[in-house]
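Sequence in, structure out. Go.
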Amino acid sequence: MAKHDTIRALVKRGVSEELAERVADAGLTLGALKALTPSELAERISISAEEAEEILALVGSKPKREVTPEEDTSLEAKV
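Output:
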């Protein structure tokens, strides 16, 4: 049921049914989408970065800046 709800919610927001199904098949919900960056979404469902940006804009996700490897301090704590 949740998968169908996700597809319906995405289509209602203007996402094509094909892309909505791919998002739902990947187990993503609207809430999960809002937490992703465009590159994460693109990689997760094998779409272009432009398509990912469009989907995220349609679901109301605030743009997130990609973190560069130089800025990623999570690795420093593990060393």
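Check: The radius of gyration is 14 Å. The longest helix spans residues 2-12.
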